[in-house]
């Protein structure tokens, strides 16, 4: 059975709960469900998006163990946030400044005792990924699926399988920002149908119904609904 709607208390109470979840994230062996829960709360309660962004900037600024498990979990959640929500303009400027500090134009020494100043560090790689994602994110209908969170933690793409009539199933690499129109266009090219006068679209099929996927729909949202 599908889970029912989540119940929430006041924004203040939910902000405290999210802060406690962030603290728990440091030592969590399997952080993926906890990350998804934090993302879901932000989707349901948009005023908390800026709060979480600010908390994550704070947690990834001069951490006690740069590159340790807790630090990486915070960067990974920040990566998922950047592919799901845009913060308000003031917080976005603050976030970009924070990311720019992780990826200096020229290599520096270990200023402040944190290896995050080195361009080759994992934190610098996450910062580069997040900066690029923020330029593409427009908002999501669904939070990332568990599979999407796993690939985002590795800064990779997902593999989406599309079943085509009269042709073998096609595997397409997609990101959190890939639209149905982009995938349909790639498949038309692969199948040699570029000169066909027909129009092509993706369809979402479940046990109960089959419906076309809107051209601007993010494939990642469709995969979350399947999950």
Automatic annotation (TrEMBL):
<dbReference type="Pfam" id="PF21989">
    <property type="entry name" value="RA_2"/>
</dbReference>
<feature type="domain" description="Ras-associating">
    <location>
        <begin position="156"/>
        <end position="227"/>
    </location>
</feature>
<dbReference type="InterPro" id="IPR000299">
    <property type="entry name" value="FERM_domain"/>
</dbReference>
<feature type="domain" description="FERM">
    <location>
        <begin position="158"/>
        <end position="227"/>
    </location>
</feature>
<dbReference type="InterPro" id="IPR038185">
    <property type="entry name" value="MyTH4_dom_sf"/>
</dbReference>
<dbReference type="InterPro" id="IPR000857">
    <property type="entry name" value="MyTH4_dom"/>
</dbReference>
<dbReference type="InterPro" id="IPR051724">
    <property type="entry name" value="Actin_motor_Myosin"/>
</dbReference>
<dbReference type="Pfam" id="PF00784">
    <property type="entry name" value="MyTH4"/>
</dbReference>
<dbReference type="GO" id="GO:0007165">
    <property type="term" value="P:signal transduction"/>
</dbReference>
<feature type="domain" description="MyTH4">
    <location>
        <begin position="1"/>
        <end position="153"/>
    </location>
</feature>
<dbReference type="InterPro" id="IPR000159">
    <property type="entry name" value="RA_dom"/>
</dbReference>
<dbReference type="GO" id="GO:0005856">
    <property type="term" value="C:cytoskeleton"/>
</dbReference>
<protein>
    <submittedName>
        <fullName>PKHH3 protein</fullName>
    </submittedName>
</protein>
